[in-house]
Design goal:
heterodimer; A: Rossmann fold; Rossmann fold; six-stranded mixed beta sheet; about 40% helix; B: about 280 residues; mainly alpha; 12 helices; 2 strands; globular
Chain lengths: ~400, ~280
């Protein structure tokens, strides 16, 4: 018996070790041989863990923009130093500290995880380093901040999920909504936005379900979806793929329309979700089905370089880089700190998603687009329904 | 709420967990070989299966190839890595975690970090009306396939010469050797079978647990929980543990979605407090 117990102990200890393991880090980045002192940009994105696809997507777009500009803006060379925050706040703090103290970066950019971005923001504010956020969407990041240093190119959930719910309740006549989303800050923010807009329009959120991040089997939650007009979902990454697949497998796709944030059907995931995603209505900040000159030339040059069209993650990185470049240009490459941040916020960009400006909280102002998943050739796309300007 | 459907779902998930954990329970509980790369075997099976399906060879072929590839991998790992450090559990933990990390990075570099989707076979890609609720045909088929495997495995272990040798080899390996049996190869065969089952579960579990980088860790944790709850060393223990986890998890999440984060670990702690040796233990 004693031997048996100690074996169990070894197993448990081993399990703990494994969950604590995993991950590494990376440094490196691009260089410039110009004689002038470069503007140093610290790009912090997850390169390990479940948010890796989002981080890699942002990074590709960010670096693509600077490649197009020959790594220069405002007469100064630009150097990008990348770091992996693993999507975790504690790691983000360490990486940002290294970037600020050892690499002496002038600007910080990136962040997918809201928790990681919040942790990094405090350091950026303390050291007066401008921060341009690509993908972390929590309202607190810009709403609570009066330092003037934070700029963000992703819409808040009040805007995106609000517009989606507006569309569902007014255009599609949805009355009873069930919300389901990931159980963390972003999911809660998304739910609040859906609830507020629904109630404003006389509809109700009959039930809200929060599933832990990394939920493998959604079947027990899907069983709770009763008699409602529509389901509004907020999931990303592997959770999104499994949710969409299982929603279809349990026959709900044919009975209850599904609405979601664009992260539910972003192109790299849509490729896998395929026919299970058909008909899902989403709110898009950028989709490569947008037809304007900036988007067309972005898609052409991207496709020439990589062989496939850019996705929403790529465009986020691209627009974040555009904003930083505009700020450096506007100050002739001479400003840093709060002055550079102010110049970034003051920029007006002709971005692939349309005209982009920033409000006095540093929050992006842009058009939002309603889309639905439809077939195109052998594959599936987020086809635009029309423009819901903000 | 249709509880019958949720019980069915719990059984389907539970049987899937059994296929994953059976190899771990037998190799560790009976042979004293702790392989933390068990999750890695699941992931190898899952991604190899994904590629086979993408190549258009079909779901069944994917299952067979995934089984064969992971069984071979498991056999090589047992013969050339683990055999040398048999009896030393700490060395086994370190070595197999190392292999797991390497596998995880290899999968990331070969298949990329975007999550993949393994669709069920076309003829099962629909939902059926079960007691008034919709239920995926695939999960019903999975229950049938897994039950057949359970019967075959228990029969082999309890009734055949190979099963007898494995059990005897653990209780008194010298006596087995005196009968002219080379235990080294018996262990390799058993290890390969356990590995192959984990790889097979990687394909079968695709539509339920997912196919993504990181599955190797998530699945390993689940397998360890199943083995700890069920009790080490017997297929029956793994089966009881797996069904317990599948049903408790499924029913808790249905009844109390807010408790989803605790639906596996709290029951595990309760079981360990009441029965530290697990629900079922093999009596030598």
């Amino acid at each position: 018996m004693l031997a048996r117990r100690s074996l169990t102990a070894v197993l448990l200890a081993a399990g703990l070790t494994v969950t604590a393991c995993g991950g590494g880090d990376d440094g490196g980045g691009g260089g410039s041989t110009a004689t002038q002192e470069p503007v140093r940009i610290g790009l912090v994105l997850p390169a390990t863990g479940p948010l890796t696809p989002n981080g890699e997507g942002n990074q590709a777009g960010f670096e693509f923009f600077w490649d197009q500009q020959d790594n220069a803006a405002g007469g100064r060379p630009v150097e990008i130093i990348t770091a992996d925050d693993e999507g975790k706040p504690d790691v983000a703090v360490t990486r940002v500290q290294e970037l600020i103290e050892q690499e002496q970066v002038d600007v910080l950019a990136g962040f997918v995880s809201s928790a990681a971005a919040l942790a990094a923001r405090d350091l950026a504010v303390r050291t007066e380093t401008p921060l341009v956020v690509t993908q972390a969407a929590t309202r607190r990041l810009t709403g609570e901040d009066d330092s003037g240093l934070v700029t963000r190119v992703i819409a808040t959930f009040e805007e995106s999920m609000g517009a989606l719910t507006e569309h569902a309740t007014t255009e599609d006549g949805v009355q009873q909504i069930l919300f389901i989303g990931s159980d963390y800050e972003a999911g809660k923010d998304a739910e609040k936005a859906v609830r507020a807009t629904a109630e404003k329009n006389g509809a109700t959120v009959a039930q809200s379900i929060f599933a832990p991040l990394g939920t493998q089997d959604f079947a027990p939650f899907l069983a709770n979806i009763g008699d409602v007009d529509a389901v509004v979902a907020f999931f990303g990454g592997t959770d999104a793929v499994r949710f969409v697949q299982q929603y279809d497998e349990f026959g709900l796709k044919d009975t209850t329309p599904l609405y979601g944030h664009w992260s539910l059907t972003v192109d790299p995931l849509l490729e896998q979700e395929a026919d299970s995603a058909e008909g899902i209505v989403t709110v898009q900040e950028y989709s490569n089905t947008i037809d304007n000159p900036a988007s067309t030339s972005f898609i052409e040059s991207w496709t020439a370089e990589f062989g496939s069209p850019p996705n929403a993650w790529n465009e986020q990185g691209y627009v974040a880089a555009m904003a930083i470049a505009a700020g450096i240009e506007a100050t002739d490459g001479e400003a840093g700190g709060a002055d550079l941040a102010a110049a970034i916020r003051a920029s007006e960009l002709d971005a692939p998603r349309g005209t982009v400006t920033f409000d006095d909280e540093g929050q992006v102002e842009q058009s939002l687009y309603m889309a639905t998943v439809g077939r195109e050739g052998d594959g599936f796309v987020n086809a635009l329904l029309g423009d819901s300007s903000n | 709420m249709n509880w019958t459907v949720q019980v069915l779902n719990g059984v389907a998930v539970g049987l899937l967990l059994f296929l994953i954990a059976a190899g771990l329970s037998v190799t560790f509980g009976v042979m004293r070989v702790l392989n933390l790369n068990h999750g890695g075997l699941y992931a190898i099976g899952a991604f190899v299966g994904y590629s086979v399906i993408q190549a258009g060879w079909g779901f069944g072929t994917a299952c067979l190839i995934a089984f064969a590839v992971t069984a071979l991998f498991g056999a090589l790992q047992q013969r050339f890595l683990l055999w040398r450090i048999r009896g030393d559990e700490l060395a086994q933990v370190l070595l197999t975690i190392g292999v797991l990390l390497v596998i995880s990075d290899l999968i990331d570099s070969i298949w990329g970090s975007d999550p993949k989707r393994v669709p069920p076979p076309a003829f099962l890609d629909e939902s059926l009306d079960v007691f008034g609720s919709r239920f995926p045909a695939y999960r019903l088929a999975l229950i049938v396939v897994a039950l057949v495997l359970v019967v075959v495995l228990v029969y082999v272990m309890d009734k055949t010469r190979l099963g007898a040798i494995v059990r005897a080899g653990v209780d008194d390996d010298e006596l087995v050797r005196l009968h002219g049996i080379d235990l080294k190869w018996v262990f390799v065969v058993v290890f390969a079978a356990g590995a192959g089952l984990a790889g097979l579960a990687g394909v079968l579990g695709g539509p339920i647990l997912g196919t993504y980088v990181g599955a190797e860790y998530d699945v390993l944790t689940l397998a360890l929980v199943v083995v700890v709850i069920g009790g080490l060393g017997s297929l029956q223990g793994a089966l009881v543990g797996a069904l317990f986890v599948g049903l408790v998890d499924s029913l808790t999440k249905t009844a109390f979605p807010g408790l989803a984060a605790f639906s596996i670990y709290v029951p595990m702690i309760l079981v360990l407090v009441a029965r530290p040796q697990g629900l079922l233990v093999r009596h030598p």
